[in-house]
Specification:
The chain is an all-alpha fold. Helices cover 58% and strands 0% of the residues. The chain contains 6 helices and no strands.
């Protein structure tokens, strides 16, 4: 089991009024801190929960657009499979699926996460 230690100065709090892009930037910089481990399943659940906390449906629309974009990129019918399932299908494990998701989210949302992908 890998133990990850973070200094307090690197922890950013997520706030309810953040945009989807702001939340993604913070969480994807240090996914282990916010998710417990580098896992696409945990990340997808986290994003869904965060979306439900939002009053504005803009986050849902943006993630739906991301899902359609991922489906088109992989030649899949976007409405038949969610973005998480498509990425996981083309990845050998959860860690690589998460790395792929980070790359795709960076590309789609242009959020420029500085996370070093191992």
């Amino acid at each position: 089991m890998k133990i990850v230690v973070f200094e307090v100065k690197y922890i950013l709090l997520l706030e309810w009024h953040m945009t989807l892009e702001q939340m993604l930037h913070i969480v994807l910089e240090r996914p282990e801190l916010y998710l417990g481990e580098r896992s696409l399943s945990r990340f997808a659940s986290f994003v869904l929960g965060w979306q439900f906390s939002q009053v504005d449906t803009n986050a849902f629309n943006k993630m739906q657009a991301f899902g359609n974009w991922v489906g088109n990129k992989y030649g899949q019918e976007p409405s038949a499979h969610g973005w998480e399932a498509i990425i996981r299908f083309y990845s050998p494990n959860e860690v690589e699926a998460m790395d792929t998701a980070i790359s795709l989210l960076n590309e789609f949302f242009n959020i420029d996460v500085c996370e070093s992908i191992n």
